[in-house]
Write a structure and sequence with these properties.
Length: 474
């Protein structure tokens, strides 16, 4: 028999607020999800608590999150002013925006599920709880929240409302992601040039413009106007309807080459301007395969580490997520274990070594040894607690990092360190990460507009005609 007394308390709450039933994977994905549902109420089935208990052992991020979720629940229940059956106010325990109540399953619930669904499975027990709550409170919207697609499909097949957990997604549509560049309208100078001031400083020309477009610009965003005389500039300051634009160094010209490399298109020129700017501490470069992300970053790093002496060494790391089956354990030291993952580094160093034609075979061999001594390959696994001082840190394949891992890495930067994140959000190999919830998308969105960060989305492939065609056609 289903006991109906304790749950009837939920009926007394406003019908306008929803009742969300949380699946375990939501809590294991984001323990703070308990405080992210604003004015709505939460219900945690006993099966969810059992699964949290089963997954708490280990050193993985999932196990850590399961333990953290249990701690939050313990903290909330320990300081509960009323009984658990009456619901516990979340507002006093977490974010002040969470004004709903938390309900735990305090009774045996035997929801009438089709005979085809085995009741011993945790997922089906949770679906049974949702069905029971919906029958018990027909005037309230009862919704299952789960990261498990199949579970949501099963719930909807039974006529129950089910949703994904959206709070971890930075953007619903990655087409809206900040690109770091903006094409100015044809009439830009007509509308913004009336009270324009211009001056020269340190080899750059500055323009102070006023107009309606200025308020929507971000600091360090690149603006361009393709005309008979193309205009390329970077936004240096924004104040209301006033903005200061600074012209760029032309890295497409051979006299401004970076370790023998020149920019082949507009976006590469933008990228080199932020990579070579010592005032910018954090750079993100997005782009499909073959757009030159790693080559430009390495060339800028070598120039600043070996010639300008801005940085003492280059540190390169990447997420070790295989595309196919894993090949098992690798022998050797940390650097030797990372070498198979660093094929991209070797390929780009080969290109950069061939840029000096006058050096000859011996000269190039000596340069290669010098470069090798200044580039260190590190594993992500041993980054916790480290501080990098005066280093040029390159994080390759950053789309495979979670926002938490990304924060861990970026906060390793000490004085004088530049962090460059490279990636393509269309090539995510990590399970459970999507384009919207990737750590790379997260940092691009959160760091935009900061005076010491820059971002460019590279669009044109420069690897080969085959690679460009394949990227589009396949």
């Amino acid at each position: 028999m289903i006991q109906r007394k304790p749950a009837s308390v939920i009926t007394r709450l406003p019908a306008s607020t929803k009742l969300f039933v949380l699946d375990t994977n939501v809590l294991m994905h984001d323990p703070t999800s308990l405080f992210r549902f604003e004015e709505h109420d939460l219900y945690i089935p006993m099966a969810t608590l059992e699964e949290l208990d089963n997954n708490k052992k280990g050193v993985s991020e999932v196990a850590r999150n399961a333990r953290q979720a249990s701690r939050y629940l313990d903290q909330i229940i320990t300081h509960a002013e009323s009984g658990i059956a009456d619901g516990i106010a979340l507002e006093i325990h977490g974010n002040k925006g969470a004004t709903g109540r938390l309900f735990l399953q305090t009774e045996a619930i035997n929801g009438d599920l089709p005979a085809r669904l085995p009741t011993g499975k945790s997922d089906n027990q949770i679906i049974g709880v949702v069905k029971h709550l919906q029958e018990l409170h027909p005037k309230r919207e009862v919704i299952l929240v789960s990261k498990d697609i199949n579970m949501r499909i099963k719930a909807r097949a039974l006529g129950l409302a089910a949703e994904d957990y959206f709070n971890d997604k930075v953007l619903e549509d990655t087409d809206l992601l900040y690109t770091g560049k903006r094409e100015l309208p044809r009439d830009f100078w007509d509308k913004h040039g009336k009270e324009m001031e211009s001056w020269q400083q340190s080899g750059f020309t500055y323009y102070r413009v006023r107009g309606p477009l200025c308020a929507s610009l971000s600091v360090n965003e690149f603006v361009y106007l393709e005309d008979d005389k193309p205009f390329y500039a970077q936004v240096r300051e924004v104040s209301g309807k006033t903005a200061i634009l600074q012209t760029l160094r032309d890295y497409m010209h051979q006299r401004h080459n970076v370790w023998g490399i020149t920019a082949r298109n507009r976006e590469q020129n933008f990228a080199l301007n932020i990579l070579m700017n010592p005032e910018i501490d954090f750079v993100t470069l997005l782009g499909q395969a073959g757009t030159g992300k790693t080559l430009l970053t390495l060339a800028a790093g070598l120039m600043q580490a070996l010639e300008h002496k801005t940085y003492s060494e280059i540190i390169m790391t990447r997420v070790t997520v295989p595309v196919g089956e894993d090949i098992g354990f690798l022998p050797g030291t940390e650097e030797e274990k990372m070498n198979p993952w660093m094929g991209a580094l070797e390929d780009n160093l080969d290109v950069l070594n061939k840029t000096d034609d006058e050096a000859g075979e011996w000269g190039r061999a000596a340069t290669r040894d010098l470069i090798r001594s200044r580039i260190k390959v590190k594993s992500l696994n041993f980054m916790r607690g480290r501080t990098f001082i005066n280093k040029y840190l390159i994080i390759d394949e950053a789309q495979n990092l979670t926002p938490k891992q990304m924060k861990t890495l970026i906060t390793r930067a000490g004085p004088g360190t530049k962090v460059v994140c490279l990636g393509n959000i269309a090539q995510i190999d990590t399970p459970y990460l999507t384009e919207g919830s990737s750590g790379l998308t997260y940092v691009v969105d959160r760091m935009k507009g900061w005076a010491h960060s820059g971002h460019v989305t590279l669009t044109r492939g420069e690897r080969s005609r085959l690679a460009d065609y394949a990227a589009e056609a396949l």
